[in-house]
Amino acid sequence: MDKFDQQIIALLRADARLAVSQIAREVNLSRSAVSERIRQLEQSGIIQGYHACVVEPAGSAVKAYLELFYQGGRCENYVERMRAFVEVRRCSGISGETDMLVYIEAPSMARLSEVRGAIENFPGMQKVKTHMLVKDWLM
Questions:
Q1: pTM
Q2: Are residues 121 and 72 in the same domain?
Q3: Do 23 and 66 have their domain in common?
């Protein structure tokens, strides 16, 4: 990746819907050169997709991270169980004492509690620690 690729990625991070012609003007390359660079970044896996960054209205979602501690089994087995909950947005296998970190966005505290309770009842689950999100910054 050279400076042009880095500039293109920075522009796409700021606005994934930016037109190729606008990107070309910003980085001083032709439209065809920018299109080819984007295609190569996608094929190499550096750009893995384009996403809408949706900001929920204030107070509408309860967000939390759950630390999961379980005995036996593999992360993949628990990830499959997590897919049953639309509120689970991300599962991460991490190093250290914690076996998995789960990010949840629920419409209410009651629903968060229901999802947490169901996860606590998974076979082999030893402990679930909840960390409520107080403030979030998008990067």
A1: 0.58
A2: yes
A3: no
Angle at 35 between CA 45 and CA 7, to 5 degrees: 70
Split into its structural domains, the chain has a count of 2
Question: How distant, in Å, are the alpha carbons of 52, 56, 79, 111 from that of 85?
Answer: 21, 19, 10, 11
- My answer on whether 36 and 68 are in the same domain is no
| Rounded-to-integer distance, Cα 105 and Cα 90, Å | 10
Domain hosting 32: range is 3-43
Read off the pLDDT of residues 39-74 as tens digits, 9 standing for 90 and up.
Answer: 999 999 989 888 776 665 666 789 999 999 988 777
Pairing of strands 88-93, 100-106: antiparallel
> Rg (Cα) of the chain, in Å, rounded?
20
